Backbone:
């Protein structure tokens, strides 16, 4: 009688994975949902406090503004300089939590 090793290993691996998936699906506890789908007031207040912009965001806001740039580059040490001009506009967005830089086309 000839045993097909690859087939046996593949079948065994499939059965193990099926068992792991079944165990995971049945072992997850389900907590009862809070009325209205929201947590308690103290939990909500803590989340809002954690999400509020802080001192790091104030430092980031100092980088907001409009800036002109002149860029000088070389493709090789003996190559001539290439110059380009640009403009960047940076603004605070999302309740002053994120600095978004944009480079409008000139």
Residues:
């Amino acid at each position: 009688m000839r045993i097909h090793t690859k087939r046996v290993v593949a079948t065994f691996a499939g059965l193990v994975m099926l068992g792991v998936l079944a165990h995971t699906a049945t072992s997850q506890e389900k907590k009862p949902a809070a009325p209205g789908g929201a947590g308690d007031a103290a939990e909500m207040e803590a989340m809002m406090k954690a999400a509020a912009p802080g001192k790091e965001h104030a430092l980031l806001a100092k980088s907001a503004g409009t800036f002109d740039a002149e860029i000088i580059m070389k493709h090789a040490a003996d190559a001539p300089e290439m110059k380009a001009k640009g403009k960047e506009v940076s603004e605070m967005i999302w309740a002053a939590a994120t600095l978004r830089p944009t480079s409008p086309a000139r």
